[in-house]
Amino acid sequence: MTRLLPAVAATLLSCASTPAPLPEAKLLEPARAPQPAAPTATAPSHAPTLIHHGTVLTAVGRVHAPGYVLLVDGRIADVGDGDGAAPPGATVIDAKGGFITPGLIDTHSHMGVYPMPGTIAHDDGNEMTAPVTAHVRSESAFWPQDPALWRALAGGVTTVQVLPGSGNVIGGRSFVAHLKPGATSALAMKLPGAPEGLKMACGENPKRFYGPKGAQPMSRMGLVATMRASFQKADEYRRARARYERDLAAWKERRAKDGASTRRPDGSPDDPPEPPPRDYALETLADVLDGKILVHNHCYRADEMHQVLDLAHEFGFQVRSFHHAVEAYKLADRLAREGTAVSTWVDWWGFKMESFDGVPQNVALLHRAGARPILHSDSSTEVRRLNQEAAKARTAGRRFGLDASDDEVLRWVTANPAWALGVEDQLGSLEKGKRADVVVWNAQPFSVYALTTHVFVDGELTYERAKHAPPLSDFEVGLVDGKALP
Amino acid sequence: MNPLSLLVAVSLSQVAIEHVRVEVGDGRALDDVTVVLSGGKVQAVGASVAAPPAATRVDGRGKVLTPGFIELHSTIGLAEVSLEPSTTDDGLDGQLLVPGFRAADGFNPQSTWIPFAREEGLTSVVAAPTHGLLAGTGVWVPLTGRLDAMPDPKAPVAMFGAAGSGAADAAGGARGGTWLKLREAFADARAWGKNKAAFEQNRWRPLALSPVHLEALWPVVTGKLPLVLAVDRASDILAALTFAKEEGVRLVVLGGAEAWLVAKPLAAAKVPVVLVPSEQVPGSFDTLRARDDAATLLAQAGVPLVLGCSDFQKRRLRQEAGIAVAYGLDRATALSAITLMPAKALGLEKELGTIEVGKRADVVLWSGDPLELSSVAEQVFIAGEAQPFDGRQRALVERYLKRVPAKP
To answer: Which of B84, B322, B400 minimises the CB distance to A353?
Structure first.
């Protein structure tokens, strides 16, 4: 709609002897595609909560043993040693013998777009109709009734990035979902203030799909060329957009200075500039070049990560994080220098050639190099045990004398992913003022025996293990309580 | 033939692990005992056992000794890089009934998965085929990773098949098709096995399968070789129980997401269930009623419980056992479910699965609680031989520890 309006306005202006009643200020917005609807923060209505008597792991280096966390109005109001003081009307949770951590964050999820149960009808995560689909958005397909979402929550995961799949070289936009139960739309779960991401993919997956069709990319050559051509177009698009915005600003300035005049000094009509045609895919990539959308690149091999980093330098954008990246340890020093995070597994390895050099010490080696390692799931099942994956990553490192503290290990599934998603100011640690996403565990969370007992999102108790609550997903209503044969 | 008989590379070394806590595998635990491994077997276990003079002595104080873990259904040695067809031998694509297929024929003891899995305490697996309604036989293999550990294809330990929604799709789109084809194959195997001579004389009606397949099915139809059937939905498990009863088959349920709903009849029929605790989610319509405490419910009902790991996570058996404990399973039962119980399900419990005198010396020495994520396997013995930690991953890490600098 907005695309047509400037032309209509220009026609009106050129015909009218008197200036239009200035609708153009509203009509002639900069040449930006409409952005996905932005969520707004809602004020929580629940009472304050004090959680105390447990060991508090903050993910910012401090451990309070025992300590407390106070949640007020959806935010962390206080964290510290000792019992803490409960404000009037507060709910008090005794976490004696337990642990208190920030909500865990998974940077790589397809929950909602490849929901459970797996059916043909549920395959919504890959738009493999062209190798570049930067115009599609995971939120368009997101199904909030995916039962996996609420099992992840029970595993202490409160935030996930929902990505398109890796079938395409550029798969589309991702969004950050905050696991607040009861939502019937993606928008209602979209974390306010979180930047969107762009999913890109290297290597075997796009090759495997497009190659046999005789289409580019059939090879890694074609794949990198596809990326380069896309960003070249995006750069041109961005220049055209900037040019238009400049011209528009100049036109507005002339209008303001010359009052009602719609004519140039030579008598020709001073029409507003024509915006360039909009292209939602290039719009997305141009926003990447502007640093507004964060790049998340599925990439296994070290040489391919080098390729992408070089390409990013060529076009002047940053790769926020590599995903899977089982060979990240081979360029850990460069990743640390470039400030590119790495989301990986511990021992998913060897299932395809590009994962053959995966080692369980990947995270420990990245940690040693000062890079930003993250344990991610890429699985609606594994997402429930990010704490265990972090624990395994530490143990694997210890075999080689590479250790990390509890707090550092916790950062691999909290503060580091928060940074990778660009939400580090809101989430990822237990600090005053941050969103009150808090998990209570019945044991040290890096023990295989540990389970969550309480999970809070924005200060609201969303999961309590001791309570037999109805399922959070509509899909499971009437299904879960099967009766065993006597 | 004993499937283990050809595989014991007799160890000349003697090892004495002293002052160690032994978790036997059958539910018992013995504190501060000495275990002597000799001639490939467990020679002695006890508090007053003395280390033989020639034995290598290992200080077991503060450590835990368990039987080596056994995975009952694995593609280790069969599928190296699962998405690279040139490296996979775990079954025949698109063929429904190939009971004569022998996983042993394709097993590669030099698989890079073997040292990787061994590091996590797995000492043997059943290398098993995966495709079709009857995929073929699996073979028990010790994870020494050596060419003298080639399995005997004539000594399978189980027949593997499937009967859930995936199998139904393959069989023509309906579950009835699965059971139709299985009944037909079993009827032919039974008839043929009773009158092989007539076949050689060309006096036989057309058969659903060729003799090489019927021959392989004979020990299954006669109840000698177990049939491990991948099946999750409660109604499918009941159908499998009925089939097993009618055909006189020794059934093992693999998967069993909804087995807890039919735990009573499974227990009554003494049918073991191989469950992957981390995967109890409604991932398909066959598993809608999966629940995290399924292992606990099965054990409480008296179902012989075996724990397994998914194909993606071929080595994490002990983590699976730990997860089951987190959801209420008794810890000793969990350990048993990855040691003695898989051996029992295969009928190999006389030689495998516990640390008892006379049994194979497949044992693992742990730095602490073997199910806990912070523990590591410090030594792995297979048939009494200390195994090296020499995986490809280790070599890569050592290389890059030197090449990539630590944070400046």
So the answer is: B84
* Integer Cα distance of B283 and B274 in angstroms: 17
Q: Give per-residue pLDDT as tens, B27-59.
A: 999 999 999 999 999 999 999 999 999 999 999
Say if B293 is an interface residue toward chain A (CB within 8 Å).
no
Least Cα distance to A433 among A54, A22, A78 occurs for A78
In a domain, B266, yes or no: yes
Three-class SS state of A418: helix
What's B182's domain CATH number? 3.20.20.140
* B371 within some domain: no
| Mode of pairing for the β-strands spanning A91-94 and B14-23 | unpaired
- Which of A333, A359, A476 is the closest to B404 by Cβ? A333
* Contact criterion met (CB below 8 Å) for B232 and B256: yes
Range of the domain at B348: 69-353+388-399
Angstroms from B358 CA to nearest CA on chain A: 33
Q: Are A105 and A88 in contact (CB under 8 A)?
A: no
**Contact at 8 Å (CB) between B283 and A380?**
yes
Q: For residue B363, tell me if it sits in a domain.
A: no
* pLDDT > 70: percent of chain B: 97
CB contact, 8 Å: B233 with chain A?
Answer: no
Task: Look at B283 and A151 and tell me if their CB atoms are within 8 Å.
Answer: no
Which 3 state secondary structure label does DSSP give A460?
strand
Substitution target from A111, A348, A448, A465 for chain B, most B beta carbons within 10 A: A448
Number of domains within chain B: 1
Q: Closest partner residue to A484 among B80, B263, B373, by Cβ?
A: B263
Residue B299 region by backbone torsions, left for phi larger than 0, else alpha for psi between -120 and 50, else beta: alpha
Using DSSP's 3-state secondary structure scheme, residue B221 falls into helix
Cis peptide preceding A23, ω within 30 of 0: no
Asked, for residue B299, whether it belongs to a domain, the answer is yes
Domains in chain A (CATH in brackets) are: 1-28 (no CATH), 103-222+281-428 (3.20.20.140)
Q: What is the ipTM of this complex?
A: 0.95
How close A409 comes to chain B (CA, Å)?
12
Q: Do B374 and A329 touch (CB under 8 A)?
A: no
Identify from B114, B291, B393, B398 which residue to disrupt to test chain A contact, counting A C-beta atoms within 10 A and taking the largest count: B393
Render each residue's pLDDT in chain B as its tens digit; 408 residues.
455 554 445 556 899 999 999 999 999 999 999 999 999 999 999 999 999 999 999 999 999 999 999 999 999 999 999 999 999 999 999 899 999 999 999 999 999 999 999 999 999 999 999 988 999 999 999 999 999 889 999 999 999 999 999 999 999 999 999 999 999 999 999 999 998 888 888 888 889 999 999 999 999 999 999 999 999 999 999 999 999 999 999 999 999 999 999 999 999 999 999 999 999 999 999 999 999 999 999 999 999 999 999 877 788 999 999 999 999 999 999 999 999 999 999 999 999 999 999 999 999 999 999 999 999 999 999 999 999 998 999 999 999 999 999 988
User: In whole angstroms, what is the distance from residue A437 CA to residue A428 CA?
Assistant: 8
Q: Is A484's CB within 8 Å of B322's CB? A: no
Are A380 and B281 inside 8 Å of each other by CB? yes
Strands A294-299 and A319-324: parallel
User: Which residues in A391-417 are b (16+ Cβ under 10 Å) and which e?
Assistant: bbbbbbbbebebebebbbbbbbbbbbb
Chain B residue with minimum CA distance to A359: B393
Lowest mean pLDDT of A67-76, A169-178, B21-30, B191-200, name the range. Answer: B191-200
Specify which residues A176 forms β-bridges with.
A161
Q: Give the distance from CA A449 to its chain's centroid.
A: 29
Which of A352, A380, A482 lies closest to B81 in CB terms? Answer: A352
Separation CA A142–CA B65 (nearest Å): 48
